[in-house]
Amino acid sequence: MGVPGLWTALERLAERRSFTEFITSDALNRARNGMRPPVIGVDASSLNEWLQAPGEAEAELACLNRSGYIDYVFTPDCDAFLFGAKKVIRSPQLEENRDIVQFYDADALRQHEPQALSPTGLRFVAVLSGGDYCMEGLQGCGLVTAVTLAKYTDLPSKLDAVVDGVGPTMSEWRQQLCYELANNPQLRYKQKLLASRVPDTFPDAEVIQLYRNPKIACAPSLLPDLAIKYPDSGELARLGCQLLQWRWVRISELLQSSVWPGHCMRQIIQEKAAGMVVPPGYSIRTAGLGLQAMRFVCKYDRHHKQPGSSASFQYCGLEMWISAVQTDALSAYIKEMNCDADSGAATRISALLWLPASILNFACPDAIRLYKVEHPQEFPGSNSNSASSSSRKKNLQATEAQNVIDLTVDDVPICYSVTEEPGKPPTIDISDD
After folding, report:
1. Are the C-beta atoms of 366 and 323 separated by less than 8 Å?
2. Which of 24, 103, 135, 234 has the most CB atoms around it within 10 Å of its CB?
3. Phi, psi (5° rounding) for residue 202?
4. Do β-strands 427-431 and 412-420 pair in parallel, antiparallel, or remain unpaired?
5. Contact partners, residue 119, CB within 8 Å, separation at least 6
């Protein structure tokens, strides 16, 4: 896709990082500064918010990126640079680790090479060496030759001027191209034979126009609302049944491992930014997957099994009430499959979700602090080793937790408490007030 060999030429200028760690850090920085979460544009029409591009998807995404509507373009196609994208994430290339991606900043590329790596220079490279709109380009001209001429001549800017009708004629531009191919001292090998074979029909003005003015629908009235939304667990369960014939156990595993953690992270960041404060030990089952649904931190990912996990980017296992999101998924499953789910999995009211520790440190630092107080042996040298036994008992009442849950049925509150002790099933006491 795009200009053959261009990704390889740009690789040395890429920033290679864990996608999860990078986006998490960016989201936290934005939250601390009162900004919206990062928005990534992806060439995939199956996403929750999508826009049908009338032409090249990369052209549409580049336009949205330049306008600030999206913050990153996630793509396997290097044409995004030609269309003027500012920040590009190349889709994963390592089969053994799909979390490692390459990040590109157009401003950094231009600082390295102002002419050849500008949109004008890259369009010139595509015209000569070939691209999506004309795969063969100038037959016999490779990427290295095209990049060298883009770097050391004014042919790219003059080509734009020709198309705009404010510069030399196309014939005059072609004569200069032939001269540079045959004589430019920066070329590793002089291309005299290629210069003698440049056809009078080269380049195709229509191809140049397609790169310069691609067909796009980047209009405010057509763009979806980017207000924060949460995954629809019911719809995902329905699709799992319809398209994949998954049973409830498989659907539940997917939601717990790949859907609910993202939902939880997004909700608790939003609630924290809005100023919500939840006292330690207080949790309810009817609050989605936000701060009020948090029960307690129960473990750390010491073996770095989570995406992007490392000594500097750790994960916490967070026990969460899941009834608010599981009910929709379970109802959709039962309706779609016309059968009940496995009774054991269906009746679970809480689940372990793995979240980056940096997210919890931002949204609910007490949860991390109290875990460290309860498990000083895991954090040698920390101040938690000297914590008093009374402080340790505050780990969200982990040894004897009372989680008061307020529900309503016909506007009549039903209150009950869940008492938990290590190694024993929870007991539930229902009261009228």
Report:
1. no
2. 24
3. -95, 140
4. antiparallel
5. 81, 82, 83, 84
Give Rg (Cα) of the chain. 28
Q: How many Cα atoms occupy the beta-carbon half-sphere of 206 within 13 Å?
A: 4
DSSP string computed for 294-355? EEEEEEE-TT--STT--SSS-EEEEEEE-HHHHHHHHHHHHHHHTSPPPHHHHT--EEEEEE
Give, for all 433 residues of the chain, the pLDDT tens digit: 678 899 999 999 999 999 999 999 999 999 999 898 999 998 774 444 555 665 678 888 999 999 898 999 999 989 999 999 999 999 998 888 889 999 999 999 999 999 899 999 999 999 999 888 888 889 999 999 999 999 999 999 999 999 888 888 999 999 999 999 999 999 999 999 999 999 999 999 888 888 888 888 776 666 767 777 889 999 999 999 999 999 998 999 999 999 999 999 999 999 998 888 776 566 666 678 999 999 999 999 888 889 999 989 999 999 999 988 998 999 999 899 887 666 666 668 899 999 999 999 999 999 999 999 988 888 776 654 444 444 444 444 443 344 444 444 445 555 555 555 555 555 555 555 5
Cα 115 to Cα 137: distance, rounded to the nearest angstrom: 20
pTM of the shown model: 0.79
Residue with tokens 């440190």: 361
Round to whole Å and give the CA distance between 273 and 31. 6
Give the helix ranges, DSSP H, for 69-142. 79-82, 106-112, 119-129
**CB of 203 closer than 8 Å to CB of 49:** no
Rounded to an integer, what distance in angstroms lies between the CA atom of residue 417 and that of residue 186? 78
Tokens of 164: 């705009």
CA distances from 40 to 13, 269, 387, 413 (A): 21, 18, 43, 42
SS3 285: coil
Rounded to the nearest angstrom, the gap between the alpha carbon of residue 224 and the centroid of all alpha carbons in its chain is: 18
